[in-house]
Amino acid sequence: MLSSTMPTMPAAPIVATLPVTPESQHDRESAYRMGTVASYALAVERVIQAMRAQLAEPLSLEEMAEIACLSPFHFNRVFRSITNIPPGEFLAVQRLDAAKRLLLTTSLSVTDVCFELGYTSLGTFTTRFKQLAGMSPLQLRQLAGVLAFTTVNPRYAGYPGAQRLTFLRDGGVYGVRGSITAPGPLSGLIFIGLFPRPIPQGRPLACTVLPAPGAFHIHPVPDGRYYLFAAALPQSQRALAYLVPTSGLLVAKYSHPVIVQGGRAHGAVALALRPPQVTDPPVLALPPLLATPIAVTMRDMSLLS
After folding, report:
1. CB 208 within 8 A of CB 159
2. Nearest Cα to 253, choosing from 234, 268, 273?
């Protein structure tokens, strides 16, 4: 005989669901984007480390993309958004920075340095080096020979009158003015320059040098669109030490292009020095040396032209 009391099934738990509000959806999307940006940055850093590990070897866009685990098209866009330059150009700058160090720290000939870093044409190497470093390999070695016996007093670094402000009739200031800060005490040379492209390479169109953080003024500056970069090096009595910094380098870049119209930029700019990051291109402009009195004298003598 069947029991009159049937077993009861346990009640299903009641699951409370939170409504998806625009605010919560925005927070989720923001967190996803932040995670994506971080993963992209790590992917780009992996590729840059691979570049440094095999500077003398060819590295195609497809191979770089494979290291980053992205499609070539997407990787190219991601790399440019993080470093401001294409991956192939970043690799070229890395190679030329290594060439600069070999030229200054070894007795290898220019030809040997050229082939040591995977170039197959001495002419191409020399032309490319001059474009990005602001002087040819031979001129760099000539400059190093002179600077080996030169001392620099940072108090007198920079162009004469670089900090003198020139005012317009309406109260504005000619050129580009602003201020620069450092993460701690700094005594040395701070180079601040305007470049035509978003990378500090070649000679700046206009520049100044400071002995310490503070206000700066770059004048004169022709009308145009520029990118503002700074590099600071600890004080050294040997001018040659500024060509091949081994430690203590700080860099800064202004986040927006600087527009100069009518001989002046509207408003002051603020720069904050920081240690270099993996995704920062090497500073090939040789900034402090190109602005020291000895370099100015050599340029006037057409040794660096």
Report:
1. yes
2. 273
Cα distance from N-terminal residue to C-terminal residue, the chain: 112
- Phi, psi of 173, rounded to the nearest 5 degrees: -120, 135
Six token digits for residue 179: 């201020």
Identify the three-state secondary structure at position 287.
helix
What beta strand segments (E) does 122-196 contain?
A: 176-181, 188-195
pLDDT tens figures, 206-245: 888 888 899 999 888 889 999 999 998 887 767 677 777 7
d(CA 17, CA 110): 70
Q: What is the pLDDT of residues 136-175, one digit of tens each?
A: 899 888 877 777 666 655 444 444 334 444 444 444 567 8
User: Would strands 258-261 and 224-234 be described as parallel, antiparallel, or unpaired?
Assistant: antiparallel
CA-based nearest residue to 97, from 62, 48, 142: 48
DSSP three-state, residue 41: helix
